[in-house]
Amino acid sequence: MTEHVTAWLGAYQDGELWGRRLRQVEDHLAHCAMCRAELERLRALAALLQESPVTGGLMPPERFVAQVGLRLPRRPERPAWQRTLEIGWQLAPLGLLGAWAFVQAVSVVTGVLLGALRMGLGGDVAARLLPGLQQGPWLAETFNLSGAGLNDVGRIMLRLLSNGGPLGWGITLNLVSLTVIGLLYWSWLGSWWAHRQVRTRLPGQQRIG
Amino acid sequence: MVYRMCGDANLAEDAAQEAFIRAWQHLPSYRPRSPFRNWVYRIATNVALDALRREREKVDIDALPLATSDEGPETTVEGRERGERVQQAVLALPPASRAVLVLREYEGLSYREIADTLGVPIGTVMSRLNYARNRLRESLAPYLERL
Predict the structure, then answer these.
(1) Smallest CA–CA separation between B6 and chain A, in Å?
(2) Is the dihedral of CA A77, A78, A79, A85 positive or negative?
(3) Which of residues 96-125 of B touch A (CB under 8 A)?
(4) Nearest Cβ partner of A58 from B3, B25, B46?
(5) Which residue from A46, A53, A202 is facing B83, i.e. has the nearest CB?
(6) How many other β-carbons are positioned within 10 Å of the β-carbon of residue B123?
(7) pLDDT for the residue A209
(8) Which residues of chain B are within 8 Å of residue A53 when distances are taken between CB atoms?
(9) Which residues in chain B have Cβ-Cβ distances shorter than 8 Å to A46?
């Protein structure tokens, strides 16, 4: 006879055995009177537990629901400025997206205008208003970054501002704006995540046992 | 479920209300990875155990008389006595085993659902259930023989 399966009888009775283990228990039960008797005792216990009525005089469900409703904490009405601040906070990414789109649009329009002036479409106006356009290969010099370290970034920006004329200003402002927008967005994302962590923590939710 | 855990009607009602209030307050923290029912059971089990712990500090809960109700004529004295004895035997179990037994026998949760609800492995669920059933078979032996 195979080894007794008493350790698995509870799971068998609960319908929690599958596959090889289930077949093993069924095969064993077919031959072992002792394990069959043990299974019967488990079934009797389950029946006794199920048949035992709830002896306490519990309140009717309607009254229970009403009492829960009364005990729910009332949320205090928040002042208008706080609600506005919260809405503004939630809309901050949209604002940043708008700012980014604006900077890009300005950059593109500036580029198109400068390109047009460079091609001589503006006549004398271009030479008078935008002398930087005539200064030759400053852009290639400025962006000759091979071997440049992080400390050189400031120098490159300064060269852009001093030699680059309106195009240099445009590129620099574009870079600065995008950096600021990126930093603001990541700050917002970080604080949103931290806020979410605080809200999702369930106090007193310990493991049982 | 909370009543089966606490064994006292007033204590259970208070704990059940507290469980629903906590669930309401922490609704934003619910993640639909696990069924909503399991999430509520988890809160209810924790609240019931907290209530029992607080009550045990104040009075000897095992000495509390089990509440009685205005039962119909079909409820016999023997049936009531048996019900009270079963409830006392369940209450005498350690809280961890009691929680597993109540969720399985009275709420019909599967082992996987119990494991998710209580945050323990399935093997632990099985061992606690076996332990609880063996203890109950010993303490309820006179009633089991009559069945």
Answers:
(1) 11
(2) negative
(3) 96-97, 99, 104-106, 110-111, 118-120, 124
(4) B3
(5) A53
(6) 10
(7) 42
(8) 75, 79-80, 83
(9) 105
Q: Structure tokens of A141? A: 């010099």
Q: What is the pLDDT of residues B72-123, one digit of tens each?
A: 545 567 777 788 888 889 888 998 899 999 999 888 889 998 998 888 999 9
A208 to B17: CB separation less than 8 angstroms, yes or no: no
Cβ contact B71:B80 at 8 Å:
yes
Per-residue tokens: B36:
């909503």
Q: How does residue A37 score in pLDDT terms, banded at 50, 70 and 90? A: very high
The model's pTM is 0.57
Residue carrying structure tokens 């609704």: B27
Report pLDDT digits (tens) over A40-69: 999 999 988 888 766 666 777 788 888 888
CB B47 within 8 A of CB B15: yes
What is the 3-class SS of chain A, one letter each residue?
CCCCCHHHHHHHHCCCCCHHHHHHHHHHHHHCHHHHHHHHHHHHHHHHHHHCCCCCCCCCHHHHHHHHHHHCCCCCCCCHHHHHHHHHHHHHHHHHHHHHHHHHHHHHHHHHHHHHHHCCCCCHHHHHHCHHHHCCCHHHHHCCCCCCCCCHHHHHHHHHHHHCHHHHHHHHHHHHHHHHHHHHHHHHHHHHHHHHHHHHCCCCCCCCC
On whether ipTM exceeds 0.85, the answer is no
Which of A48, A49, A38 is CA-nearest to residue A13? A38
